[in-house]
Amino acid sequence: MIQRLLLERERWPLWLPVFLGLGIAVYFALGVEPPWWLGALVLAVVLGLAVILRRWGWGFLVGWPLVFVALGFAAAQARSAWVAAPVLERPSGRVVVQGLVDEVEPLAEGGQRVTLVQPRLELDGPIPTKLRLRLKQNDPVPVGAVIRLDAILVPPPQPMAPGAFDFARHAWFMGLGAVGSGLGAPEIVTSPSRVWGLNRLRQHVLERMTRQLPAGTGGVAAALVTGETSAIPRAILDDYRDSGLAHLLSISGLHMSLLAGMAFFVLRGGLALIPSVALRHPIKKWAAALALLATFFYMLLAGAPIPAQRAFMMTGIVLLAVMLDRSALSMRLVAWAAILVLLLSPEALIGPSFQMSFAAVVALIASYEKLSGPLAAWGANHRDWHHRVALYAIGLVLSSLVAGSATALYGAYHFNRFAPFSLLANLAAVPLTGALVMPSAMAALVLMPLGLDNLALVPLGWGVAAINWVASQVASLPGAATLLPPLPSWALAAFTLGGLWLGLWKEKWRLWGLLPMGAGLAGFLTVTPPDILVDGRGYSFAARLADGSLLVNRGGRLLRDTWERRAGPLSAEPWPKNAVSADQSLACTAGFCLWRGQGRRVAYVQKDAAVQDACAGADWVIAAVPVRDHCRGRARVIDRFDLWRRGAHALWLSTGRVDSVARWQGDRPWSHHPVKRRKKPDEIPATNEKETENDDS
Known about the structure:
Layout: H1 2-7, H2 16-29, H3 38-55, H4 59-82, E1 94-106, E2 112-120, E3 130-135, E4 146-154, H5 167-174, E5 178-182, E6 187-190, H6 198-212, H7 215-226, H8 234-243, H9 253-272, H10 275-278, H11 283-301, H12 306-323, H13 331-344, H14 352-381, H15 385-415, E7 417-418, H16 422-447, H17 454-475, E8 482-483, H18 489-504, H19 514-522, E9 532-534, E10 541-544, E11 550-552, H20 557-567, E12 586-588, E13 592-597, E14 600-605, H21 611-616, E15 620-623, E16 636-638, H22 640-646, E17 649-652, E18 657-660, H23 661-665
Parallel strand pairs: 3-5, 14-15, 15-16
Antiparallel strand pairs: 1-2, 1-4, 2-3, 4-5, 4-6, 7-8, 9-10, 9-17, 10-11, 12-13, 13-14, 17-18
């Protein structure tokens, strides 16, 4: 073992970001928030230990890994404290809100979503410094303006089921303290200044593209430039997701490399046309420097999401290497980019964007290290044009296959879906993106200040429409989107460590990584979906029928979609009102519903008058009203107060297991902290917040 480690000494530094990520993962896995001084203390102690181990010759093998684990933990804790901002404690009711418009996102279904900073409102308790409102009117609110309007605010929504996407945690690291709905047209108190900021520029680009192109193409075109997907119709988003093309909507390595390559060759070619410049100056280095500035601007225009940050760092290192006459395409490039991203945004580790983008890049470079020699030798002996076309096609197929295989499990973990035909879709869409869509999008940006962007938007619309057609056709194939059960976190960790072992080492012992990867895949077989689900208000309830489907009484699209991904397919059968379900497992009367299964009876109650009857005939009582002492000694109870304190619940009747959002989250700064009895369900507005981190991949 030690001998093999010594043989691969040059690969040791590649594991440093892995240990950094391990420390970050430990922080987010904790059930309670650690004391503020713990991260710094552990880091100081481990640094001292590393110095001692270095004297004994074990510094790099033991000392540095421990240092990076401690550094990751300390960085995550420091980041959480740094972004801490006031969070609304309870629903506000109708309140007058005034604030500075920082960002505006048009919505495909109509209206817009507005982010306000420095808000002013009269409320008891903490006042958020940043909040997000959904407005019904379509006329865009100008970024930079100060507006006033009536609104209803709520705290950032907690997960809709244990283990589901945690928007409250996502909002914490965004500094977002409240969400809500505007109740009327906003009044512009102060018009925006003439100074253009990036958010105003992003809004201008969004408006130009969505207005001049049809809805089905304008939203996608705007997403390719700004990274904002809110203007894309839901049906098209579903097609991209089910066909395996959702990565095209996230500003990542593909977009950044295409932009950098186009900028580099156009600038270098233009400078080469001027003999006095080309013969006397290093135009290659000048072109690389200008391309670096262009990619930096592109990252900022897209809002600097995690995939764009990673792609910019890697592209920037490559361009820097060109300026320094060095070669930069290596796994160390990925390691440095990962370290920088994790230190700047430790929370990125637990999101799909980071996991999928780095998994794809590591797999591609590891494959390139093994296959570049044979492919180069074949290309040297086959120089005809059809051989070059074949080599390009082989490279495209291999790249799509490797990247798709590396990211499939992460997509399944976060979105509970697998797209088996993604290779087919990518083979058609990726060349079209590089040859037509991205060049047209960049040309539109350059021509937009001159008012000539329509010259580039027309071919851009053609290219996007073609990709939309590919996504639609592939998504309509039988079995194009396979629903998978939720993967346990330990399985994802095992698969990740096995994949890293396989990709980071070069000798044959790297094949040992296939064992933990196989164990991770087997994690799907260990999952048992819950029998009962109830939301945090007791308003929505789901019970499993005899055929394995989930029957839901009510709830919006987001809740139904979340429950389907966490607990299995939804039943098409309507909820029985004063009737019995087709399989006789669920019977509802005017007062309550009684579900029978797994040898248990579960009553679902929404009226006070039905509590006593429900308690008399059930093993479990789930109530949207207070139960108090009515069920003492008769049944296990989850009532309004339990739901208020602990959020959504899931029940496994065969084992008696109960899980809740509060237990799953733990006592963290972003977790469920009720401070006062909430309003009745019909008084709490639906915020319709989308799962933002999930839509980034």
